[in-house]
TrEMBL record:
SUPFAM superfamilies per record: NAD(P)-binding Rossmann-fold domains (SSF51735)
Pfam family, one: adh_short
GO MF annotations in UniProt: oxidoreductase activity
Source organism superkingdom: Bacteria
InterPro entries: NAD(P)-bd_dom_sf (IPR036291), Sc_DH/Rdtase_CS (IPR020904), SDR_fam (IPR002347)
Family (UniProt): Belongs to the short-chain dehydrogenases/reductases (SDR) family.
Protein name: SDR family oxidoreductase
Length: 262
C-alpha cells in the first residue's frame, strides 16, 4: 500500500531533472512538501510551480552546487531558516566520468568524489537526527548497478557508488528501530542527462529504463512491510548485479571493461 507523506518535508538533491525530478513528483502526489536542490535555478522554479499548481504542496527551490565548499551548511541553513523539519531525504545528485584514470582531469575527479560521496554523507549526517526522530519518512541514497563490481574506465564513479551502497546498508541497520525507511537505489542505464555529462552512450550496459520506472522500484521497496537496505531497478539489472557479487573479480573485471569500451 502506498504510504501517505502528507504534512512531511522531503529534501531532494539533483532535483532539476531525471530521477530527482521524478522523486519530487512522486512525493508531491503523496502530499509531501519539498526542498528541491540542484544547480539550475530555472528548472527548479519551473518544477516547483508545476508541483504547487498540481498538488497544493509547499515547494522551496534552492539553486546550489553541492560540490562547492560550505554547500551542505547552506542547505541546513536554508531548511531551518524556514522553520522546516526534514522527514525524508533523497540523495540523488551525482555524475560520472569515462576514460582512463591517468588521462582524467584531476579537479573534475575531486569534484566527483565530493559530490557523489562527500555531500551525500554530510547531508545524511546533518539530517539523520530529524529523520529518525520523525520516523515517518524515507532516506534514499541513489547508487548504481556500477556499485556491484569495479568498472575500468569509470573507476572513480563505480567506487563512489560502491561506497554509497555500503554506507546506506550500514545506516539502514543502525536506524532499523526508528521507523525511518532506508534504501540504496541502484539503477542501471536510465533515460536521464547522465550520459550527456559522461560524454558517451557507449558506456551504457543493458536496456534503458525511464526515471518513472526507477522511482517506482524505489517506492515499492519503501512501501513494503520490510524495506530492503538496497534495491536494484530492473530484473536484468538485478541479475547482473548478483553476478557481480558472486563471480570472481578476476572474471568480472575484464568482462566489465569490455562492455564499457565496446
Amino acid at each position: 500500500m502506498a504510504r501517505n507523506h502528507a504534512g512531511t518535508t522531503a529534501v531532494i538533491t539533483g532535483a532539476s531533472s531525471g530521477i530527482g525530478a521524478e522523486f519530487a513528483r512522486t512525493l508531491a502526489v503523496r502530499g509531501a512538501n519539498l526542498v528541491l536542490v540542484a544547480r539550475r535555478e530555472d528548472r527548479l522554479i519551473a518544477l516547483a510551480d508545476e508541483l504547487v499548481a498540481a498538488h497544493g504542496v509547499a515547494v522551496h527551490p534552492l539553486a546550489l552546487d553541492l560540490a562547492a565548499p560550505g554547500a551542505v551548511d547552506a542547505v541546513e541553513t536554508f531548511v531551518h531558516d524556514r522553520g522546516l523539519t526534514v522527514d525524508s531525504l533523497v540523495n540523488n545528485a551525482g555524475f560520472g566520468m569515462h576514460g582512463p584514470l591517468a588521462e582524467a582531469d584531476a579537479p573534475r575527479i575531486d569534484e566527483q568524489v565530493r559530490l557523489n560521496v562527500g555531500a551525500l554523507v554530510a547531508l545524511t549526517r546533518a539530517f539523520l537526527p530529524e529523520l529518525t526522530a520523525s520516523g515517518r519518512g524515507v532516506l534514499v541514497n541513489v547508487a548504481s548497478t556500477a556499485a556491484f563490481q569495479p568498472v575500468p574506465f569509470m573507476a572513480t564513479y563505480a567506487a563512489t557508488k560502491a561506497f554509497v551502497l555500503s554506507f546506506t546498508e550500514a545506516v539502514a541497520f543502525e536506524t532499523r528501530d526508528s521507523g525511518l525507511r532506508v534504501t540504496a537505489l541502484a539503477p542501471g542505464a536510465t533515460r536521464t542527462e547522465f550520459f550527456d555529462v559522461v560524454g558517451s552512450e557507449g558506456v551504457r550496459v543493458g536496456n534503458y529504463q525511464t526515471s518513472e520506472e526507477v522511482v517506482a522500484t524505489a517506492m515499492r521497496a519503501l512501501d513494503a512491510r520490510r524495506t530492503p537496505p538496497s534495491v536494484v531497478s530492473g530484473g536484468r539489472n538485478a541479475a547482473t548485479a548478483l553476478m557481480g557479487r558472486i563471480m570472481p573479480r578476476s572474471i568480472v573485471i575484464p568482462i566489465t571493461a569490455r562492455l564499457i569500451t565496446d
